[in-house]
Design a protein that fits this description.
It comes from Pseudodesulfovibrio nedwellii. By secondary structure, the chain is an alpha+beta fold. Helix content is 34%, strand content 21%. The N and C termini lie far apart (84 Å). About 13% of the residues have low confidence.
Length: 175
């Protein structure tokens, strides 16, 4: 066997060992990553009764749970993106809001997290491809209804989940 063949056959086990080590390091490094911080007790959003107008908005939003996400969508026939869902639900209840989330974020009155009530809009900084501002409608169950992202459907999520608490940007009262 020539010297080139010996070198090549000796390098193969070394490369295999190197690949296994790199795989182990990249896989195990996830174990050391920081878990989402739990919501602090003073910023937990609690269930509370909805005003009649907020109850109507919440009912409209909950009927749409399960409809598909569609970027730019703003009606049941096509599906919804997050701001299109907000626009549609409030419009069905006689309230005209801007169509896009960054304009919705400038509507109404800014409120603190611990003052959130049913019918308020909650905004999140999600930094996903092509978008970063996400919006949903607060329910009377300390949840919010939103159209999350491509491949998903309109859903209800907890306001107090570590993920959403970590990405919370602000809330607006439009009622």
């Amino acid at each position: 066997m020539g010297d080139a063949m010996k070198t090549h056959s000796m390098a193969r086990p070394f490369l295999l060992l190197l690949a296994v080590c790199l795989l182990a390091v990249t896989t195990l490094s996830g174990c050391g990553t920081k878990s989402p911080t739990p919501v602090s007790p003073d910023s937990v959003v609690h269930s509370q009764p909805a005003s009649p107008k907020a109850a109507s908005i919440i009912r409209t939003a909950l009927v749409l749970v399960g409809y598909p996400y569609k970027w730019g969508g703003h009606m049941p026939e096509t599906g919804f993106d997050c701001s299109g869902l907000i626009w549609f639900v409030y419009r069905q209840n006689g309230i005209n809001l801007p169509r896009v989330s960054w304009q919705q974020f400038g509507t109404g009155t800014s409120i603190k997290r611990n003052d959130i009530r049913p019918g308020d809009l909650v905004f999140y900084d999600v930094k996903k491809t092509g978008k970063s501002l996400h919006v949903g409608i607060v329910t009377d169950r300390a949840t919010f209804v939103h159209a999350p992202s491509s491949g998903k459907q309109v859903m209800e999520s907890s306001l107090n989940s570590p993920y959403w608490a970590q990405h919370y940007l602000g809330a607006r009262r439009v009622l």
